[in-house]
Amino acid sequence: MHRSINSRRRGISLMEVLFSIGLDVLGVMGIAILLPVATYRAQKGLRADRSSALGRNALHEFDSRGLKLEAGWLQWNPSNNRFFTPSNVGDPNHPNNNSSPPNPGLLIGRQAVCIDPYFIARNAEANGGTMPNPVEWFPYTNLQGGNDIDPAFRRTPLLSTQFSQPNNPHAMPRLTLDNGQGLRNAMSSLQAESIFLENDNLIFDLPEKDKTLPPIQNYGGTVSRRQTKGNLSWYVTIAPRLDAMTVDTSNPGLVISDANQKQYTLSIVVVEDRVPLIASPTTGVNNAAGERVALVSNFLGGGYGGGEVAMITRNANRPITDLNLKRDRWVMLSGFFRDGSNQPVLPVVHSWYKVAAADDKAERVTISGVDVFRRYVTLQGPDFPVRTSAATPGVWPEDVRVTMVKGVVAVFEKSFRIENTSLWRQ
């Protein structure tokens, strides 16, 4: 007797069950693998959104608070432990006050500056009101001439140290702002935090017992105000625009700005999780990774749009960590602009660039008879005026320094003019 087809037992085989389970496991594993990537992308997008909002707000803060008024800028004088107005050689605390003829302090139209009140205030607070050396220069990495930069990597002649930091002529003065009360009193840490730290990332406390209750805003203990994480901060670099410069025929080789223009490039530098201290006040350990300096051995793309750059450590004894860089972070290139006579001229070129790509690790190489570490990076930004021959004005690659500030996630730039007077400020 034959059974009909419809009388057979309905169901699925064990092999089919195992195959279905295998497919489900593969799907779950694929989702699990994507979760870290999705989390990283979400955090990256959130960081970009927050830094963009902070950068745009900082541009408005710079204008609305009159920060481009040079009369409100202050620089630290380590010789007498006083602040002075760098553009006013008549200031009694000015280091060039007694010189004859008086040497200019801050060369308006020629000198780049860094306005960083939060960094200076935090260092003063951590050191009992005094300043660690060299807080008055950016970057604070102290390059001790030939002892720190191998002679094989230095072009001569160098720029006169009258206009710069003797141990690091590529550095720019690091300035703070007065507190609005006159008498050359610098901003306090609390004042600087209210301006130069992100105030939108609020801190909330979650109820410990009843999880159904909503989060509660944290207003702090002694200070009755909403608390923020403040892990994003910003400072400013101001550099003269080369296209707004003219050559002073009465002083050959010196590049100056048109007195009626004073055209500058304003760069708002946004930093994540910055440690604004040169050294730990408790252990005395230097924060060497906070602001590092390296050299450039070659511009493989001629400096157009930044391009591919070969970075090297500045001597044989420097560690490989000097070249630590992450993609999407920012670096500043600085170099002496030389005219057709090969003389270094003012201003020193300063430009910020985004790291588009970088080799996985640095390699040990021998350049000009010196064993150093080298790492290739690809930069995005404005054209850098690389000099290719002695007759071409520009910057020799050997004259270029790379400043790496830990945690720089964004840089926003615009052109502006420095102001000498204001109706709202005396």
Short description:
With 426 residues, the protein is of the alpha+beta class. The chain has helices spanning 14-64, 117-126, 145-148, 189-196, and strands at residues 73-77, 82-84, 113-115, 137-138, 172-177, 204-205, 216-217, 232-240, 245-247, 255-257, 263-272, 291-299, 306-312, 330-338, 344-358, 363-367, 370-380, 401-405, 408-417.
Can you put this structure into words, describing what you see?
By secondary structure, this protein is of the alpha+beta class. The chain is built from four helices and 19 strands. The protein has a domain at 33-290 and 407-417. The model is unreliable at 100-109 and 143-147 (pLDDT under 50). The chain is globular. Helix 2 (117-126) packs antiparallel against helix 4. Strands 1, 2, 3, 4, 5, 8, 11 and 19 form an eight-stranded mixed beta sheet that branches. Helix content is 17%, strand content 28%.
Number of helices: 4
**Rg on CA atoms, Å:** 28 Å
Overall geometry: globular
| Average pLDDT figure | 77
Describe the oligomeric state of these chains in a short phrase.
single chain
Helix content: 10-25%
Sheet/helix structural class:
alpha+beta
Low-confidence stretches: 100-109, 143-147
Layout of helices and strands:
Elements: H1 14-64, E1 73-77, E2 82-84, E3 113-115, H2 117-126, E4 137-138, H3 145-148, E5 172-177, H4 189-196, E6 204-205, E7 216-217, E8 232-240, E9 245-247, E10 255-257, E11 263-272, E12 291-299, E13 306-312, E14 330-338, E15 344-358, E16 363-367, E17 370-380, E18 401-405, E19 408-417
Parallel strand pairs: 3-5
Antiparallel strand pairs: 1-2, 1-5, 3-8, 4-5, 6-7, 8-11, 9-10, 11-19, 12-13, 12-18, 13-17, 14-15, 14-18, 15-17, 16-17
Helix pairs in contact: 2-4
